[in-house]
Amino acid sequence: MDLFDQFTPPGNLLPCDGDVRYYGVVMGHGQTDDFFRRLLEEIPWAHDELVMFGRPVVTRRKVAWYGDRPFAYTYSRATKQALPWVPVLAELKALVEQCSGEPYNSCLLNLYHSGEEAMGWHSDDEPELKKHGAIASVSLGAPRRFVFRHKQSKDQIKLMLEHGSLLVMSGATQAFWQHSLPATKTVQSPRINLTFRAMVA
Ligand SMILES: O=C(O)CCC(=O)C(=O)O
Ligand SMILES: [Fe+2]
C-alpha cells in the first residue's frame, strides 16, 4: 500500500445536495484503544439536558463541549461554556485537520453507553456554526450504524462508523440532509463520538 493512500480523500457518499466523505479508520490499532481509554478517563462526562416537545429531558447519553474560546453551546437547555482543549483532544483535532484539510475551533463529544442510547434525526445547522463549514466526526468504541436522510426526497444513505474512523460532512449537507444514529439491541458496549466543528468567530 502506498503511504499516501490514506490521505487521498474518499468519494462523496451523497448523490446530491451536499458532501459526505467516509475516510474509514484513520489511526493505528493501538492508538484507537488508547484514545478511547483516555477520553473515557479524562473527559468530565455529564448528562445532556434538552427540551423535547416543550418538556425538559435528561438524556442517557453523556456529553462534553470544548473549544478555542468559551463558546456557548445552545443545543442544550442549560447553556454550557466550551472547556479549553486538553492534550487528547488537541491530538485528535490535529489528526482530523490533517486528514480533512479543514480547520476546527470546537468539539462536541457524545458518550453512548450501549446500543440503546442513540441520536434522533437532526441537522447540525445552528446559526453559531460557520455556514457550509466542515464537521469532522470521529468514532471510537463500538461500531454503530449512521444514516443520512434527504429532507425532501427522503432518500437514505446508510453506513457503519468503525472504531477509529473519520467521517466529514461539508458544503450544503446540513441544509438538505438530516442524520441519525439509530438505537440497536445488538450493541452492548460503549461508543464515543467527537464532532469537530467551526463556530463563527
Ligand atoms: O454519534 C454520532 O455519530 C453523531 C453525533 C451527532 O450527529 C452530533 O453530535 O451532532
Ligand atoms: Fe449531528
From TrEMBL:
Alphabetical GO biological process terms: DNA alkylation repair
EC top class, as a word: oxidoreductase
Protein name in UniProt: DNA-N1-methyladenine dioxygenase
Keywords carried by this UniProt record: Dioxygenase, DNA damage, DNA repair, Iron, Magnesium, Metal-binding, Oxidoreductase
Keyword match Magnesium: yes
Domain of life: Bacteria
Residues annotated as domain Fe2OG dioxygenase: 103-200
PANTHER family xref list: ALPHA-KETOGLUTARATE-DEPENDENT DIOXYGENASE ALKB HOMOLOG 3
InterPro entries named in the record: AlkB-like (IPR027450), AlkB-like_sf (IPR037151), ALKBH3 (IPR032854), Oxoglu/Fe-dep_dioxygenase_dom (IPR005123)
Keyword Iron attributed: yes
EC number(s) from the headed UniProt entry: 1.14.11.-
A molecular-function term among this protein's GO annotations: catalytic activity, acting on DNA
Necessary cofactors: Fe(2+)
